[in-house]
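thread: overnight batch results

M.L. [08:02]
morning all. the overnight job finished for the chain we discussed friday. pasting input first so we're all looking at the same thing
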Amino acid sequence: MMKAMVYNKKDGRFTMQEVATPEPRQGEVLIRVHASSINAADYRTMKLGIGPKSGIYGADIAGTVVSLGEGVTRLSVGDEVQGDVATDGFGGFAQYAVAPETLLGKKPASVSFETAAATTLAGVTAMQAFRLAGMDVRGKRVLVIGASGGVGTLAVQLAKHYGAEVTGVTSARNLEQTRAIGADYVIDYRKADCLANGKQYDLILAVQGDASPREYKHALAKGGATVVIGGALNRVFQVMAFGWIYSMGGKRIRVLAAKPNAADTEALMQLVAAGSIRPVIEKIVPLEELDEAFHYVSAGHASGKVVVRIA
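M.L. [08:03]
and the structure it wrote out:
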């Protein structure tokens, strides 16, 4: 048996419960979870009613492998790993979790479990957004809309690491934080419309994608691209349905469907270990305080990541 914070749909709260420890199946490993973090993937699937049947959320996991299922060849008992398990049933808000080894990267020894848990989903998402854009951004103008959350803070840092000129869009209270992580320019979205200020960008990363395809196209330079990562679902669906129309004429508008995998996770964590990027962690809370922290993050109050430490 293990302890887990289980979500109850009836009252919309998480409570600590004793549940059966999962067993690894073919190609899976059992992980002693040391840390997880709260992501939009958790509360958005919750709102859509497509969350895990177990009620145990937690997309990011970082911990130690304690047993192996049949067919596991790359990982061994005792390996320290991290991964994004949102596509495989979640499970991070518990003492133990199972995950396919294909989703897990080996954690560098110099990186803490808390840092790993704060970085994986958000960082891989940001990396894949640049890949989907399909351009070398060195010397290019990159706009990150929603620069203060988990994905946004890492997108800003990756853009600088790749050599871009970066403009971060956020609220007034996070302007200094966005400058501190490397943004060359910052915009308070309440005071200025970043897509209608006359400036054009080579790449727009819409972490909070609440604009129309027409608005994105208007703000793109010739040959530019917009990658919509998140935001209002109606706008995301609009870009999915009509983005191809506005992509005619050399400007591209795409929606990212991030795909967690071990290779991208390990590449990302090497950047963290080298000090090239770092997650912005607002606070670390114990597992028993998950309910309050979860509602805090889902209400949009967090600046950076809220990490859950599993004692």
